[in-house]
Amino acid sequence: MTDIKKTPAGSKTAGQSIMLDRRQLLLGAAGAAIGTATLGVASGLGIRPARAADRTEISFASASFFGKEGLGDLVKAFNESQSRITVKFIELPPPSSSTEVYQGLVQQLARRNGTPDVFSQDVIWIAGFASAGWALPLDEYFPKDKRADYFPGTVAACTYGGKLTALPWFVDSGMFYYRKDLVEKHGGKVPETWADMAAMAAEAQKAGDAKFGYLWQGKQAEVLVCDAVEIIASNGGSILSADGKSSVIGDDAAVAAIQFLYDTINKTKISPQNVLSWDEEPSRQPFTSGEAMFMRNWSYVYPIAQDPKASHVVDKVAVAPLPHFAGGKSSACLGGYQLGVNANSKKREAAIEFLTWMSSPETQTRLALNFGLAPSRPAIFQDAKLKAEQPFMASLQNVFTGATPRPITPQYAKVTLALQSSISKALVSGNVKAELQAAAAQINKIVG
Asked: What does the similarity note say (predicted)?
């Protein structure tokens, strides 16, 4: 759903003498396997393998994620994959308690004592953690050729001040849900532009095939910012300037985008007035009950839509990239958790090795299959096992390719509150340009 996080660092470890060349180990996705093989050769030469007491111990703090297994099982798998490092798992609340997770990380990182050595973070916390000096820059460990293995939007969200301060882990994004049967009846082609979507939705409503044409989230909350990021970017606009030092939400592209959302309620009438008080679940329920044709939401909706106990549209729902304005391109607000290293870690080499393992193709595939968390590496979406066991997830590569981060600024907590208030006022009053220009002025004072 809507989430964010960041990173820190350390110094050299005692176990360094038994490690492979750092660059070869850390930049190779199979670093842990190589290390295990090396220890096996060493044993054959009469060199004693490292005992548990000889291992370098580091800590990993993360929100709790569960599926067929838990994160503790993943940490255990790393510990058992090699004999140099032991990771202690510090379990934080689940991401549904995002504020508590954030506060827990801030309290630990602010101590600057090196604990935790590695952490996971909601994507919107990255700039703040980097600005505070808590996140270790990772550029020397993951040069540009390695970053090309990830979705560009995720790398952009992990970058602050021109430096990579987090490593992509797993992603989510906004996506366009549609009724296959109704699209087939009213044109046969999934609309790619907002204008075509609005026309098709209105037609389905007029024919009595759908009570609601398009559902989205207009509640004055973080999800409203997500919806706004998507539709503004799909018109070639933005909330902040490229350097992050001023706001451009009052510009024509952004104004036209938010005006379209206002019009879905008041002009085309494809959205009910109630969307202004809805976040994810209230907007999901009418869709899975069969009352709507189109909806913007997150990936969690799909399995609910396919559950006969919770849905009246089983086998009638599909997902596509969100529409765009003429001349623009589809954009999806980026969510998910990314990985960071504590800038004050005293065991930096071990921390980087664990970070590399956690973001490797093998581990990301395991997260996809056992946790239902989408990979941040496009290549994994072609995995035969993923296609067989998680066909819906495997179909999302083109959706995630358009993932766009929310405003990247250490002042995000203040910026999002200003956005939520101003966009909400614009959608209620219809004074879109005036409200967005007021928002730009307020945000300029925050980030300037």
From this structure: Belongs to the bacterial solute-binding protein 1 family.
